[in-house]
Amino acid sequence: MTEYDLTTVTAALSRRDWDDSTDGEVRFALVGLGWWTREYVLPVLTDLDACAATVAVSGTASKRESVVDDWDRVETALSYEEFHEGVAVDEYDAVYVCTPNATHLDHARAAADHGKAVLCEKPMEATPERAAAMVDACERADVPLIVAYRMQTDPAVRSLRTAVRDGLLGDPVHVHGHMSQRIGDIFPDGNWRLDPDLAGRGGSVTDLGIYPLNTTRFLLDVEPVSVRATASSDGELFAEIPDERASFEVTFDDGTVAQCFASQNAEFSAGLEIVGTQGSLRLAPGFFDAETQRITLTRDGERHSVTYDPVDQMREEFAYVAHHLLRGEPVDPTGAHGVVDVATIDAIYDAAESGERVSVDTDPDPAE
Amino acid sequence: MTEYDLTTVTAALSRRDWDDSTDGEVRFALVGLGWWTREYVLPVLTDLDACAATVAVSGTASKRESVVDDWDRVETALSYEEFHEGVAVDEYDAVYVCTPNATHLDHARAAADHGKAVLCEKPMEATPERAAAMVDACERADVPLIVAYRMQTDPAVRSLRTAVRDGLLGDPVHVHGHMSQRIGDIFPDGNWRLDPDLAGRGGSVTDLGIYPLNTTRFLLDVEPVSVRATASSDGELFAEIPDERASFEVTFDDGTVAQCFASQNAEFSAGLEIVGTQGSLRLAPGFFDAETQRITLTRDGERHSVTYDPVDQMREEFAYVAHHLLRGEPVDPTGAHGVVDVATIDAIYDAAESGERVSVDTDPDPAE
């Protein structure tokens, strides 16, 4: 393989670059039955041999009951209180937490108390301290805590990572990543993602900016050191958050600088580009899974492109997690990894408020 | 035409969106006979009916004499001193200044004193004050002063501008632009672009970052308000400049934020993407002229692409300038427009040094 043959890099990866033969099944309690769980998670868990959804947990009785009615394997509906009290703990092995960010800790703590593995949606929590407390709770209970960064199990992103590790970029110099959508088109009546009490300090960086941030960390094996940010809001739907749109810059520990953009009120866009001393790699479109993705390597001024058919990102995610849980293997990305994103996002909001460069405290004190 | 039919927008533009029929000829004195003038300018002026190179000005006798020997229409070789003194002023109508940045003012002043139109390479000068002084000199002499931003006469960029003006983006929200090359591959023994005495305060923002900066101003009809920047150098070739690589953010007067990257020591890369409330437009690759360019419009989640065959950017530039000069029409981009970029670049270096947000003084006092 010549050192810049991207097609060969990609062909060398199987559809999954980890062994997906597994005996057994991980039974999930689904905590939070909103749009994402119903549209994207339940079909996948029903389809995958290594997974099942068996318990539906929601604060809304009609939601949890309709899930039991609609999905064969889901036999038990629980309120949050019942779930916290440990009702039906024998009916599930792991918990998938997909509630508003600021409630993740309470559900993860309950799961840990019950001795269950936790797969928690991103971002882990609304504050770094609460995210750190989640890590503590799971460590004390000795249960795995995994953050559901589905980019880390996306075949195109994993190919990119291999290309970076094979040195196709030389030394990384600069990253640009962006993600935007018009959330008002998805939720015309508003959504908890725009409510700081539930989402955390903002809505665009927290929900969308985390994609280029975490994907850069994953691809380059780097950690954030400091950030700067510019954010603004003026639309009525965004009155409670500071970041209808945000531009932020992250300086990583190897000196690489990432410039990122996130907005809940702009045309659907997403991509990531890394420029290095010897090559550049671009993923576009990225992050969203509805479209054919393209990776383009530029090296010595020549372009090489590879396309990736759309995958079901949640299927990749759950297959990967179940496989590793069933084999008793450690599962990335861990809670400790996720805390760093929450801390970085917190620093980004500080930076947007103050106008200053803000250091990222990657080891925050856990909340009580 | 549906409002998001990019192909129709593009087809509606002729190859040039201005009338290129012209009688007459503009005779240029070429001031500075480096790589750019010899490789990119002399062939174009020889080929275009509306232009001719008639006088070669250089500090190096062998250079100016070889140009007279090699190019039929170039009959007179002048030293800088002879040019400043007004030798052979009847042999040229306009002056093309392509010397190190910090010397542009002296040559432009001489040209203005001789009553000649000035086409000055970008960036106009090494400091905002000297750029402002150039504007003053040309105004006093009542001669046109044009800055050679060839993006502004590039057909793909002009199509993009039409698309923006037709509202295909909705309201612009975010811009990302980048340009990088390995200057060490082009000039292994170093180059004045890396010498602050000749280039200005730095080498990457000044020489390359100006492309996304000026192109954004041109496309969106916006002006810079404030900037932030992060820059670093560690390679030996870059010891005298602060910006072997630089990331900078420009906030414009309409609230649009542009994140830009420039490096003289990274893989060849260049592009511009604008995300708006209703659509996004991407030009990639951009700026360099050796490759087929592609404009991609995303609107309502659908992609529309148009490609552009490579053009000779200097040919477009000179044809446009000559056409307007011959008709006695005003020619954009003017010196007053160019001063704003030099002021913005100066603010970017201040921002990189201080770590602070820096306001752009778009109306600097002219140097003595």
Give the largest chain-chain interface (CB within 8 Å).
Answer: A-B, 41 and 40 residues
As laid out across the biggest beta sheet of chain A, the strand order is: 14-13-12-11-7-10-9-8-15
Radius of gyration of chain A: 20 Å
End-to-end separation of chain A: 53 Å
* CATH topology group of the largest domain in chain A: Dihydrodipicolinate Reductase, domain 2
Q: Beta fraction of the residues of chain A?
A: 25-35%
- Oligomer description: homodimer
Q: Tell the overall outline of chain A.
A: globular
Number of strand segments of chain A: 15
Structural class, from secondary structure content of chain A? alpha/beta
Structural domain count of chain A: 2
CATH superfamily of the largest domain in chain A: Dihydrodipicolinate Reductase, domain 2
Give the proportion of residues in helices of chain A: 25-40%
Order of helices and strands of chain A: HEHEHEHEHEHEHEHHHEEEEEEEHHE
- Mean pLDDT of chain A comes to 94
Name of the level-1 CATH class of the largest domain in chain A:
Alpha Beta
CATH architecture term of the largest domain in chain A: 2-Layer Sandwich
Unreliable sequence segments of chain A = none
* Number of helices in the DSSP assignment of chain A: 12
Protein described:
Two copies of one chain form a homodimer. Chain A is an alpha/beta fold. Chain A folds into two domains: 14-150, Rossmann fold; 151-310 and 335-359, Dihydrodipicolinate Reductase, domain 2, CATH 3.30.360. Helices cover 35% and strands 26% of the residues of chain A. Chain A is built from twelve helices and 15 strands. Chain A has helices at 6-12, 35-47, 61-70, 80-85, 104-113, 128-141, 155-165, 183-186, 196-199, 204-220, 313-326, 335-354, and strands at residues 26-31, 51-57, 76-78, 94-97, 117-120, 145-147, 172-182, 224-232, 245-252, 257-263, 265-276, 279-284, 293-299, 302-308, 358-359. In chain A, the strands form two sheets. Chain A has a nine-stranded mixed β-sheet with strand order 14-13-12-11-7-10-9-8-15. In chain A, α5 (104-113) packs parallel to α6 (128-141), α7 crosses α10 and α10 (204-220) crosses α12. The longest helix of chain A is centred in the C-terminal third of the chain and has 20 residues, at 335-354. The radius of gyration of chain A is 20 Å and the shape is globular. The model of chain A has no long low-confidence stretch (mean pLDDT 94). Chains A and B meet through β7, β8, β9, β10 and β11 of A and β7, β8, β9, β10 and β11 of B.
